[in-house]
Design goal:
Blueprint lengths: L1 E2 L25 E2 L29 E3 L3 H9 L4 E6 L8 E4 L3 E4 L1 H4 L3 H16 L2 H12 L10 H5 L6 H30 L4 H13 L11 H8 L3 H10 L3
Parallel strand pairs: 1-5, 4-6
Antiparallel strand pairs: 2-4, 3-4, 5-6
The structure holds zinc ion (ZN).
Zinc ion (ZN) binds next to strand 1, helix 3 and helix 6.
Length: 244
């Protein structure tokens, strides 16, 4: 469960992106009138990069279930596309700029609330513009002139093979993952009625039982559980907020 900027030409250090081939074009679920939840944090105001998601060879588009559309609406997203992929290389789920979530068979086998947490986590990566944040940070730390490129993929390439640069932005990546866990759990609470226990914690516990984390970008699951516990009461209140 991690995000990456889909890039057909090179792997990214943290996200381990392999080559992707342009084959299928996804359809987009447009959210009619996004109404961000009043508790949902404003995204950063930094510049918008242009991102071109290119689905993998075996990726298939999928309709977006109403509860996930509701999460996207609560996060203020204009569009959301879901792809299914048989490739588990990058973990059970990941997101890609500008509006894509890819789910694998192991994600689709999860119980509904666990999957809602996984999808909510990825929606936060998109809504909080973590990709633009990464592209901007990599450009700044590389000393590139402002507006040197409008393409997000160009900026992400700066980290290729540059472990020093990756280290400099690693604190940002960790903060983004924590934010995606916290807010993703709250999104799944309000939109799907999932408690922290039945969603986020159940997912992370089964991850521990399965033998560890799914991506280097994420803290060990025990630490993620510890950080999520203080949000249990907030999630309970959000579960009660939404008519079902
Ligand atoms: Zn993540």
């Amino acid at each position: 469960m991690f995000k990456f900027a889909c890039n057909p030409s090179r792997p990214a250090i943290r996200r381990g992106v392999a080559g992707f081939l342009l084959v299928c074009a996804g359809f987009s679920s447009r959210i009619a009138a996004p109404a961000p939840a009043d508790w949902f944090p404003d995204p950063p105001t930094l510049r918008h990069y242009v991102w071109r998601y290119q689905p993998c060879l075996t990726c298939e588009t999928s309709a977006v279930p109403p509860a996930w559309l509701r999460m996207a609406e609560l996060a203020g997203l204009q569009t959301l596309r879901i792809f299914h992929s048989s490739d588990e290389t990058f973990g059970p789920a990941y997101s890609a700029a500008p509006d894509v979530i890819v789910l694998t068979p192991s994600a689709l086998k999860l119980q509904a609330c666990q999957l809602a947490f996984v999808v909510g986590h990825e929606i936060v990566h998109i809504a909080q513009r973590h990709f633009d944040e990464d592209a901007n940070a990599l450009s700044v730390f590389s000393g590139m002139p402002g507006n040197w490129t409008e393409r997000g993929e160009d900026a992400m390439q700066l980290s290729e093979g540059n472990f020093g640069l990756a280290l400099r932005v690693s604190h940002l990546w960790q903060a983004q993952e924590q934010e995606a866990d916290w807010i993703g759990a709250l999104l799944s609470a309000q939109a799907s009625g999932c408690s922290i226990e039945s969603g986020a914690l159940a997912y992370l516990r089964q991850e521990i039982e399965a033998g560890g984390g799914v991506a280097a970008a994420h803290a060990p699951s025990m630490e993620r559980i510890r950080q999520l516990l203080p949000f249990a009461d907030s999630a309970k209140r959000l579960v009660e907020l939404e008519p079902r």
